[in-house]
Q: What sequence folds into this?
């Protein structure tokens, strides 16, 4: 019978601090390879892949088919990206799967695929309240 373990908060806080202190991708990779099993590394990379694909606007069914994972896992990722102030959404905005994609005159939010209202000076996703690209009344900046 499998035992359900609870998170030891002080230890989790220390691990988060250690991760935040690592100053290079090479050191981070080495640390993660030392700390995690190959299966855990696979799980983390698969989770990140699905988040990238969601940020690119790929449908959940297409992601499930491509990555061979359940819709439940993808739905969890989608909920994370829709949370206001989600760090994950901001991090995805810095890489290839940026939240804002420039297209000609305006930009389009890849989560809602709605055109920004640039002609009247406003910016951000038209859906605003539920969109991770619109953080606290301000469009999520690139590189955050």
A:
């Amino acid at each position: 019978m499998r035992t359900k373990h609870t998170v030891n908060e002080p230890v989790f806080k220390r691990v988060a601090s250690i991760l935040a202190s690592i100053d290079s991708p090479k050191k981070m990779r080495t640390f993660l390879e030392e700390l995690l099993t190959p299966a855990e590394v696979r799980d983390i990379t698969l989770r990140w892949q699905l988040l990238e694909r969601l940020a690119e606007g790929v449908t959940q069914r297409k992601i499930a088919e491509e990555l061979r994972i359940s819709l439940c896992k993808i739905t969890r990722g989608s909920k994370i990206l829709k949370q206001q102030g989600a760090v994950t959404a901001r991090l995805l905005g810095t890489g290839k799967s940026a939240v804002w994609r420039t297209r000609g005159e305006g930009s389009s939010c890849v989560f809602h695929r709605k055109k920004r209202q640039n002609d009247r000076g406003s910016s951000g996703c038209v859906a605003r309240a539920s969109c991770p690209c619109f953080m606290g009344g301000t469009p999520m900046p690139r590189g955050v």
Remarks:
- Strands lie at 100-103, 106-109, 134-135, 138-139.
- The radius of gyration is 18 Å.
- The CA atoms of residues 116 and 123 lie 6 Å apart.
- The helical segments are 9-21, 25-35, 38-55, 60-67, 71-82, 87-92.
